[in-house]
Structure formats: structure tokens, C-alpha cells
Design brief:
single chain; 168 residues; Alpha-D-Glucose-1,6-Bisphosphate, Chain A, domain 4; 4 helices; 7 strands; globular
Length: 168
């Protein structure tokens, strides 16, 4: 593990074929994870159509207090994985936070036909060791619980949405 980095992982199993799940998750607004965190600042963004995203694509997140951060697609391998980073924070609320990366992995469940396993890692990178320690003491457990719940909800939504598409 890189110094001053905390990794939080979660996974969900979805009863939908891998290709459909990958497309659905990539198109899903994964920033909802941050919007629902009670201590995250309110922000907005206009990224355009996600189908146009390619590695290197970036856009700005605007915080209610007038500050901003950059969100960038770093890595994209269809039906396997993608990685986004959020960095260049220009807000005093996150002075110790250097960046956040979140990566999603997709794999077929070999023991269950038609099931897909979606795993994710959120890496919180800190400028200072003290900021990392404070994160571990005050936020890590609640973010882990929230990420597990988020993955469960996203899995249910994906299954429902994808099945509805198949029926139409």
C-alpha cells in the first residue's frame, strides 16, 4: 500500500450477464456515492454523455462553496474494469486530501450461471499522515458501511433496470 493511502473495498453479486452489468454500472452515476455521504460537500457537475468517455476524459466538479475538483477517467477495459480519479481539490474542507480513486472490476461467477461479481476499491490519498490517521479514526468505518449499502442498492437497481430492458 502506498504511504498515506486508505483503501476501502466492497463487492456485490448480480443475477445478470457480465456485459449488461458492465454497461449499466459504467453508465450509472457513481458520484451518487459521494453525494449521499453526510460529511461530503454538496457539488454538481456536467460531464456530458458517458458514452463519449475515453481514458483521459475529464470534467470539473463544482462545490456549493465555489471551489472545484477534477474528475478523470484514467483506465477503461470493456467488460473488465474502469478507474476514475478525483483530484485537484480547490476547497479548504479537504486540505489534507490529495485525491480519490475508485476502480470497479467485473467477473463472471463460475459457479452460478448468469451471475456477475462487481467489486470496487475506493482509494483515499492524503497529503499528510495526520490526515490519514484522522480519516481512519473518524470516517473509515462509516464509509465502509455506506459503500457496502451503496453496492447492494446499485446491484438491486441494476438487476431491476436490466431485467426491465430485456422485457421491453
Amino acid at each position: 500500500m502506498i504511504l498515506n493511502t486508505q483503501v476501502i473495498k466492497s463487492a456485490v453479486e448480480i443475477n445478470v450477464p457480465l456485459k449488461a452489468v458492465f454497461i449499466w454500472v459504467f453508465n450509472y452515476d457513481l458520484l451518487k456515492f459521494f453525494k449521499k455521504l453526510p460529511y461530503a460537500p454538496i457539488f454538481t457537475h456536467s460531464a456530458g454523455k458517458i458514452e463519449n468517455f475515453r481514458p483521459g476524459f475529464e470534467h470539473t466538479l463544482y462545490f456549493l462553496n465555489g471551489n472545484a475538483a477534477r474528475r478523470r477517467l484514467v483506465f477503461f477495459l470493456p467488460e473488465i474494469s474502469f478507474l476514475f480519479s478525483i483530484d485537484n481539490f480547490k476547497t479548504g474542507s479537504y486540505m489534507g486530501l490529495s485525491g480519490i480513486e475508485y476502480q470497479y472490476y467485473f467477473s463472471k461467477n463460475e459457479s452460478k450461471q448468469g451471475f456477475t461479481v462487481v467489486s470496487c476499491e475506493y482509494r483515499f490519498k492524503f497529503r499528510y499522515r495526520i490526515a490519514e490517521i484522522l480519516f481512519c479514526v473518524f470516517y473509515r468505518r462509516s464509509i465502509q458501511r455506506y459503500l457496502d449499502a451503496f453496492m447492494h442498492e446499485a446491484g438491486q437497481a441494476a438487476q431491476k433496470d436490466i431485467f426491465c430492458e430485456y422485457l421491453n
